[in-house]
Structures are given as structure tokens and as C-alpha cells.
UniProtKB/TrEMBL annotation:
GO process terms (BP): allantoin catabolic process; purine nucleobase metabolic process
All residue ranges annotated as the Allantoicase domain in the record: 16-165, 185-313
UniProt gene name: alc
Name of the protein described by the UniProt record: Probable allantoicase
NCBIfam families referenced in this protein's UniProt entry, alphabetically: allantoicase
Amino acid sequence: MPPFTTLPDLALRTLGGSVVAASDESFAEKESLIKPGRPGFLAETFGHKGQVYDGWETRRRREPGHDWALVRLGLPGVIRGVVIDTAWFKGNYPPYASVEAAAVGGHPSPAELLAAPWTEIVPRAGLKGDAEHHFEVADETRYTHVRLNIHPDGGVARLRVHGEVRPDLSVYEGLGLDLAALANGGLVTACSDDFYSAPNNVISPGLARHQAEGWETARRRDGGNDWLLVRLAGRGVLALAEIDTTNLLFNAPAAVSLTGIDGDREIELLPRTRLQPDTPHRFPLRHRDPVTHVRVDIYPDGGLARVRLHGHLA
């Protein structure tokens, strides 16, 4: 897999993404494009519109032109790569596709989006049926929306838009916020182990519904401990840490510690502290020096559902 696929999917529905409009969705609904998880398929499952597909499928065009879908990114940011997945579409996939992006402030309507200036970030490229197609993007612009164009018609199972979150934090001026949150620009930049699930899950929006929506490591046999490193949304002063082990019943860590990092300086924010399984923990932090990163150490291994680090931008 290309390195960009380790970055968050900015369009994902569970991160607030939305398919706001499409030229057509006669066979299968546009909303499936940004669903989490792999596309499913059950052969010979027919509805009123034909075979049921877990994806977006348009009619067969009998006129010039091409089909398109407008996607609002749940997390605006810099796009590093796009994945167009035609899983299960074998005789009805589009032979070509392209992707455009736009930066539109406020809460635009579909008509306003269509009238906005668009930049091509993935030139028209050939597609295969039942396959993932990876396209790297070299563009440092912050975007809020993308448009998937398929030429001329057909079905796409998933659209993934991987990148780095660039929110507008000015709305929090004078207020506290979760400086670790993915939605605010936080990012897990390193971790000791991601055997069971991705570390960026712990800073995702909302609550984890089950173990797979948190971060869980393999069982350690070497006497060490697992850890992850969070790059904060900005240099800031932290006042409260939330360490949530919800859903981790028999695989929660025994303890946790937090270390702030500012340049080459390390600051103990939370000494090694006992954790309980399946429990949201809240720990006041007394240190008032600003930091840019926080290392979360768990002892010796296990899983966390969420990590929240509340404070103020310095």
C-alpha cells in the first residue's frame, strides 16, 4: 500500500463526510462511496433496480457527458492521495475516472459547489473492474470538497481521500479544545505497535462502539511497554486528559503515563497511573508549560478506546 493510505480518510462518513449530490444514482446510492469498511457483496441478490451493490452505480448513459459525485470532506485538509475502489463491479465499472477538489468556505449548497472553481488533482486515468486504484496527489492546497468524475458511467464501491487535517481553529479563539483530536488537526505520528487496529482511532470523533474502533496492540513478551506519539493540533497548554478504556474488558492496559514534548524537552504530564478496564478516566494535568507532542505510554500492552487532551493553544 502507498504510504499515504496510513493518513486519515478525510471523506469518511464517520468523520463527518457527506456525498451532497450526484448526477445520477439509478442503480445504487451515492452515500455508499464514503462508508467505512470494505464493500460487501452477495451474489444473486436482486431488488427493484437489479443486483444490489454496496457502492454507487449510475444508469447506462445514452447521451454525451459523464457522471459525477460531489463529496464534502468531513475533515478539510491537504490531500495526499486518493483511492478509487471498484470492488465487485466487474461488468459495470467505469473505464475512466478523474478527481477534482475545491476550497469553499461556509456551508455551500450543491448549486454553489458546482459553480465554484475546481482544481484537477487526479487526471483522467484508466480503471479496472473489482480493483483498488491508488493515486498520489502533489498539491499543498487546503481543500473542503472533492468531485469524483466517472467516464462515462458505471459503478464505484468506495472513494477514499487520504490527507492531513487542516481545520479552521480560529472559531475556538478564547476557548479550550481537544488538542489531540483528529478533527482539530491532531495526528498520531508514531506508535510501537498497531497489530489489531489503527492508532489514529484513539483521536477520532465520537465514542468507540467496539474494540476495533480503538487502538489495540499485540501481547508483549519482552518486558517492555507500548506507546504512541500524538502531534497536537498546535503548541498548547494541556489541562485535562481523558483516557478511555471502554470496550476493553480483558485487554485494557494496567497503567498509563503521559509525557509532553516541546523541542528537545520532555515534561512529565501524568506519572504512571493505574487504569481500570471498560472505564472512561479523567486526569487533571497540573503542568503549565506548552508542548507540541504527547507520548502516551501504556503498561505493558493492551488497548485504548479514546485519548482526549484538553487545553488551550499557546
